[in-house]
Give the backbone structure.
Amino acid sequence: MELAPFTPWMGKPTPESRRAITRQIMDGTDELTDQIVEGLVQIVAMEGPILSSRAFNLYSKKGGMAKLTGAAVRRFSTALKKANSQGKISMERDPSAEGVVALLWLPTMKRVNPRELGNRSFDDIPASELGEVLFDLAAEEDTFDKPILYQKLSELYGLKQLPKNATARLDFVYGEFLE
């Protein structure tokens, strides 16, 4: 199995972006919400399908925020709902994420696109993407044995070993997509 290349969205903080994100979070006007919508659309266009948690973190880092605050999450969530209602971003709940995390993609994209790990953490890979990779590996290896599939998945993503929390997440994904 081959994974598609992963193309990361690159946004670097500037003095202007730091001022802009502060205004966007503090001021709930439609104009500033639209700016957030456009920023999220750009991120999803480059990295989608993407988890909302990653999109929010990328957007906040471009604004120079060291940590994603509750106020920022609320503003970004409002903008995301607006983008969805306008048909700019499609979304659904990511089935393996704890808490409320959405899978985001543009309406012109496939909802699932197995890609290389790239600069994502293992937790940033959508469950649907992991599920498709596990399914394809099971067919390729002619086995549903979890340890074998998890090892093959680890190798496919170029990892020497899976992160500590990965087995529980993969067990959940396995149950959702392979059982």
User: Anything to note?
Assistant: Strands lie at 50-51, 90-93, 102-105. The longest helix spans residues 30-47. The chain is about 55% helix and 5% strand. The chain has two domains: 15-105, 122-177.
